[in-house]
Amino acid sequence: MNRSATPSSPTPPDPGGATGRPVRRDARRNRDKLIATAQAAFATAEGPVSLEAVAREAGVGIGTLYRHFPTREDLVDAVYAAELDAVTAYAPDLIGRHPADIALRAWMGRYAAFVATKRGMMDTLRTAFASGRIAAPSRDRVTATITTMLEQGAATGTLRTDIDPEDVTTLLLGVFVAITDGASQERTDRLLDLLVDALRPGRGARTDS
Questions:
Q1: Could you tell me the CA-to-CA distances from 123 to 63, 69, 101, 120 in Å, in that order?
Q2: What does each C-alpha distance from 80 to 64, 132, 136, 163 come to in angstroms?
Q3: Could you tell me if 44 and 120 are in contact, meaning their C-beta atoms sit under 8 angstroms apart?
């Protein structure tokens, strides 16, 4: 008997096709659904949001949630990054309509308002802001927006020329710690006013000796 002619066992069908793309599309849909559900839950909850409740509302199992977001911090980071899209998209319009110092203050106010509405993720955000542990891509996007505004302000004389954008990001996160600790809108506005005022020319600028 010629063994080489023996028919091989049939290969089981691949439900995802040769590339597995349908499976990835399903996974992406589930991930997007979980983020959208968590966004709504975090914005309306008065306290911490149950991950089981997020999974249930999104129509997936808790195992699916944990495959995408192994920890609560991972889910919060994803929601934070998604909402940051709207915050950063707001910046170019402000720069086009206002002097850089006014644009920067208005942008910071918009950003602070986003943080203040996320009651269901306050505890996680507080820890992240206090430790500086914001997902690197998100922090980089914030710093990039601040850099653009500082450069515009330096060119027009409305903001100092000796500012490190990373320092401004760090100070802004400090304001957000106060927000997550329950600072009033009045105090938040006062802190942001002080921060932007310190960035204006003549407000403590370094001088060469």
A1: 23, 17, 31, 8
A2: 20, 14, 12, 26
A3: yes
pLDDT tens digits along 33-51:
999 999 888 877 777 788 9
* Structure-token pair, residue 173: 């996160």
Q: Is the dihedral of CA 125, 127, 130, 136 positive or negative?
A: negative
Domains of the chain: 22-70 (1.10.10), 73-198 (1.10.357.10)
Say which residue the tokens 């106060």 belong to: 178
CA 90, CA 145: separation in Å to the nearest integer? Answer: 10
Question: Per-residue pLDDT averaged across 123-143, rounded?
Answer: 73
Which of 78, 140, 70, 80 shows the shortest CA–CA distance to 111?
80
